[in-house]
Amino acid sequence: MSIRSMTGFAQVKGQLNGQMGFTLSLKSVNHRFLDIHFRMPSDSDDLEMKLRRRLKEKMARGHVELTLNLERSVSDGFSLNRELVGGYVRAFRAAAAEFGLAAEPDLNAILRIPGALESEALPANDGLEDAVLSKMEEALVRLNQMREEEGCGTERELRERMKHVQQAREGVEKHRQAVLHIYAERLKTRLQELVGSQIDPERILQEAALLVDRSDIQEELVRLDQHVKHLLGLLDQGGEVGKKLDFLLQEMNREANTLLSKTSGLAGEAMKITELGLSMKADIEKAREQVQNLE
User: Which of 205, 256, 262, 290 has the fewest CB atoms within 10 Å, measured from its CB?
Assistant: First the structure.
């Protein structure tokens, strides 16, 4: 199964008879979960439940908006909310009479009042429901095709970012000996200071253990390599991997931060590790931005 983005749009049109047609639109953007919203004619609860079931079968994550617009003849398209319009006209005339104004309400202004014109409810017509459900399958295919196309672009971007991370990690590995040499010199100097001041041997061992622990970046390099390989494996696997990729990239970012903290304050050739570590973090952050939109 291909990797899919959560962003997409699809629109299909259907015709039931010579007087009634409909437009079905699907729009999706990124979201932590599957969040479905409907914009449909009133009294269409049964159809909405069936459409919701189809969406859950075909989609795993994303904020999805489904819009169903009925297209009827002009005479059947809207009904007048007589109670609302009548109340507005009576209030208008009462205000005009109270203040002695010669004025009549503007019909165009009245019809722009929210609720003055109401679209009719979904008609009781089994044929229409079947037609909408049939077109729903077509809309879902188009939507997921668009999501897969964008997902392919994101996958290429992620693979390129991971290639950069691996190159930076290999560069750090090459300069690791320089870091070890610097820490060895520091350890030697520190031990000489402690021995000269006749410090307890236990204290000397503690200082040595601390410096050795700070100098060890091999563990971070190994974990980074494992995380990159795991991430590439998930991309090969495909499907719903967005959350897993995000978690892995968080772990990679922590390893890069630890690596930088262990090599901070070092001069000379070891400064290149800092440059490579910052480059690594930049690629990881850009990759995290990309996976936020993957299903």
Answer: 205
